Amino acid sequence: MSTPTVRLPTGESIGAARRRAGQIVAALKRRYPDARVPLHHENAFQLLVATILSAQCTDAMVNRVTPVLFARYRTARDFAAARPRDLEALIRPTGFFRQKTKAIIGASRTLVERFGGEVPRTMEDLLTLDGVGRKTANVILGGFYGTPGVVVDTHVRRLSQRLALTGSDEPERIEQDLMLLIPRRAWSALSLRLIFFGREVCTARSPRCPACPLNRFCPSAKYRGAPPWMARRGRGQTARRPGAGAAAGRARSGRTARTARTPAGPRPKRS
Ligand code: SF4
Question: Domains in the chain and their CATH numbers?
Fold first, then answer.
């Protein structure tokens, strides 16, 4: 059996990258000692619904919507029997409400029919649910069941590339690369901390490299967050060029400030 490898864009050895990754893990832990999922929930099913709702929406908005939602629909059985129109009206502020309604009702029906209304504890079973891909499954596994997993959302993808911990643009490959470089016990918390850090400091368009607490460990610091190995990445993957502010960038792309945010959770269909 061949040993899994990581092809790093800087040509760094795996041993050196592991040591550097350890320093990154420690620095992020100091900055964000509390690495809990910010989506309010009381059980695995509520976390599943909240994570589906968080696609292209802020956690704060999801947390405003879910108290009313969960007061009206308590179990997977309730959601499975919900009228789409009623659900859509309640979750409308989170955006993509029709797709999310479909995903939530579909997932709930599968939970009732195949899993006795309980959220399964394995990746394989979670992936059978509507609207659930590896990212959402890892949020549930790590955030509720305590099974470590690497959640690769847009922030984790961008930061892994800037930090040169992966040479890939594919979420599954990035997940594998991080799993090889980071100790298993740190997977879930690191994902959350990278998401927090990507929203706050190492943003898509304006990474704050000079003031960044990771700049000593980051090969992209000298490129102001736009290293050559990311030169051909898609929109939002490279840093802001001088004179191209976030608002200007959004105006060019036709996105609003709200839709430009990138959430911890999945995209509406499957992620
Ligand atoms: S040094 Fe710059 S590119 Fe690297 S993690 Fe910090 S903000 Fe991001």
Answer: 14-228+244-271 (1.10.340.30)
